[in-house]
Amino acid sequence: MSRMMEPLTVGRVVGEVVDIFTPTVKMDVIYSSCNKQVANGHEIMPSVITAKPRVDIGGDDMRGAYTLIMTDPDFPSPSDPYLREHLHWLVTDIPGTTDASFGKEIAEYETPRPVVGIHRYVFLLFKQTRGRQTVRAPASRDNFNTRKFSQENGLGLPVAAVYFNAQRETAARRR
Question: How far apart are CA 87 and CA 157, in angstroms?
Fold first, then answer.
């Protein structure tokens, strides 16, 4: 198992959200409000992630297109995620070697607001196999299923993934 995959497996992203895959594209997720780059398993306070992040996509295929998904597999609580997964953001047709702002936003960014427990927020990047393509918006943000969505839209396995943890902030934690 590659060193890049290990934190995704330990954090149960691989297994619960997606099947094992080989990362082939560099993806950086940066919240500019706090100049914080998302790193697997690190905690970010909800108060600093209210605006959508910048998502830079690497690779060497400028003609390729990508789909970005942000999901919460622990919704509404990690001990009882009966609405698993909750879709927070969906962007398609992102040109390679650019960032998500160049894509087509299918589901607007929804600020994470964990109420109970520590939630994982997962960013998954898929290479679109047919270049620009029609990706249908899901009927609901709740009970979103990344595997099923990927299969229905011909996306295959992810080419990159990263996740962070967040939990409800108390007044003491905000200081």
Answer: 18
Which residues on neighbouring strands pair with residue 37, listed in sequence order?
Answer: 30
- Nearest 5 degrees, angle CA 136-CA 59-CA 32? 75
According to DSSP, the β-strands at 118-127 and 65-72 are antiparallel
Using 50, 70 and 90 to split pLDDT, how confident is the model at 73? very high
DSSP reduced 3-state for 147:
helix
pTM of the model: 0.92
* Length of the chain as a residue count: 175
pLDDT digits (tens, 9 = 90+) for 30-39: 998 778 899 9
Residues whose CB is less than 8 angstroms from the CB of residue 43 and which lie 6 or more positions away in sequence, other chains included: 118, 164, 165, 166, 167
Residue 36 φ/ψ, nearest 5 degrees: -110, 125
State the Cα angle at 86 between 132 and 117, rounded to 5°: 140
